[in-house]
Amino acid sequence: MGSSPYAHPLPTPSTPAGREGLAALLARHDKAVVALDFDGTLAEIVPDPEQARAHPGAVPALAALAPKVASVAVVTGRPAGVAVRYGGFAGVPGLDHLVVLGHYGAERWDAVSGTVRTPAAHPGVAAARAELPGFLDRIGAWRGTWIEEKGQAVAVHTRRASDPQAAFEALRGPLAELAARNGLILEPGRMVLELRPPGMDKGVALQEYVREVDAQAVLYAGDDLGDLPAFSAVEKLRSDGVPGLLVCSGSAEVQEVAARADLLVPGPAAVVEFLAALAREL
């Protein structure tokens, strides 16, 4: 029998809490939630976010894993329907237990129904979106930046600028003021600054979903600053007696996530390998 390209052993977390979380996940897998960020975790970061797609091995790994756990949840800042399309999650055998919590949990797609539940848009998002092109032009930061329409949010990317980090730093303060003026908050990420309504974050989404399914173990994997609230949620769940494992999809750009993780894997290909190994162990 030929070996699978993802036939790697399950890695050992570096922390006692992480090892406890992995052990609980293996022992109580039918009561476990496996939650994953999309961009940078299941999909590589690319200059144009509209070209992002899940790693080719992601759907097979998730299809092998999902029937063995209570649920797999993709928790993303993207609209739920966009993450479903870019992930290739719809209509896949084995993914009946998959949900996508889009817009930081404000939207939800369930594989079993194939439908998206979407709230009304925050009026401040429309106002900020209308103002952004002229705003960027006035402060001399238009060249090389790119506006992403996200429905419930709007984002400015600097990865295409001649100096992405300098553009990011130059925009951070002015965009925070624009966000506040429109009743929004500014969420910084990997060469992206997102303006979105308050009260929406991955930690809130994850905690509510874990409670909904009455999970007895939880795994969360992410790569960016927007994933830190989900890390905090797992840490809170641990203090409440629900074991958890925190996985960082490694990036030199965001050291804060790596510092908080129990297990560091070097990017989406390695995340896929980890999920496939986990599925084999269950």
How would you describe this structure to a colleague?
With 282 residues, this protein is α/β, with parallel strands linked by helices. 38% of the residues lie in helices and 19% in strands. It has helices at residues 16-27, 58-65, 80-87, 123-138, 164-181, 202-213, 228-239, 255-260, 268-281, and strands at residues 32-36, 71-75, 98-102, 107-110, 115-117, 146-149, 154-157, 185-188, 192-196, 217-222, 244-249, 263-265. The strands form two sheets. Strands 5-4-3-2-1-10-11-12 form an eight-stranded mixed β-sheet, with helices on both faces. A four-stranded antiparallel β-sheet has the order 6-7-9-8, with helices on one face. Helix 3 (80-87) links the parallel strand 2 and strand 3. Helix 6 (202-213) packs across helix 7 (228-239). The longest helix is centred in the middle third of the chain and has 18 residues, at 164-181. The model is unreliable at 1-6 (pLDDT under 50).
Topology:
Blueprint: H1 16-27, E1 32-36, H2 58-65, E2 71-75, H3 80-87, E3 98-102, E4 107-110, E5 115-117, H4 123-138, E6 146-149, E7 154-157, H5 164-181, E8 185-188, E9 192-196, H6 202-213, E10 217-222, H7 228-239, E11 244-249, H8 255-260, E12 263-265, H9 268-281
Parallel strand pairs: 1-2, 1-10, 2-3, 10-11, 11-12
Antiparallel strand pairs: 3-4, 4-5, 6-7, 7-9, 8-9
Helix pairs in contact: 2-9, 6-7
Low-confidence stretches: 1-6
Strand percentage lies at: 15-25%
Overall pLDDT, averaged? Answer: 91
Order of the strands making up the biggest sheet: 5-4-3-2-1-10-11-12
Largest sheet geometry:
8 strands, mixed
- Broad shape: globular
The number of strands is 12
Gap between N and C termini:
21 Å
Structural class: alpha/beta
Can you give the helix content as a percent range? 25-40%
Output the radius of gyration: 19 Å
How many alpha or pi helices? 9
| Strand/helix succession | HEHEHEEEHEEHEEHEHEHEH
